[in-house]
Amino acid sequence: MFACKRKNGGEKDHVHILFETPSQVQLSKLVNILKTVSSRLIKKQYEHHLKKYYWKPAFWSRSYCILSTGGATIETIKKYIENQNK
């Protein structure tokens, strides 16, 4: 798994995550679990800091986007994601 926080050229709190999964996995459920678990862990670990910024019960937005990489290599995808910061 590879993640990159996007700083410019879009939402400042935008995150890219590159992962590989078997075709049997329901991607909507995977995203839901990822958001649920990460939200709980982040809120627990940074509760004091987050109180200043988050007053809503939801940490992540409900939206997400999933794209397939086709025949591109992992290195090509990583470079594309990393260049989103520029």
Explained architecture:
By secondary structure, the chain is an alpha+beta fold. It has one domain. Helix content is about 35%, strand content about 10%. It is built from 3 helices and 2 strands; from the N terminus they run ββααα. It has helices spanning about 25-45, 45-50, 75-80; strands at about 1-5, 15-20. The protein has a two-stranded antiparallel sheet. The chain starts with a strand and ends with a helix. Residues about 5-10 have low confidence and may be disordered.
Let me know the average pLDDT: 80
Number of helices: 3
Order of helices and strands: EEHHH
Our estimate of the beta-strand percent is 5-15%
Oligomer: single chain
Total separate domains? 1
Shape verdict: globular
For the sheet with most strands, the description reads:
2 strands, antiparallel
Which structural class best describes the helix and strand composition?
A: alpha+beta
Percent of residues in helices: 25-40%
Unreliable segments of 5+ consecutive residues: 5-9
Distance between the termini: 22 Å
Rg, rounded, reads 15 Å
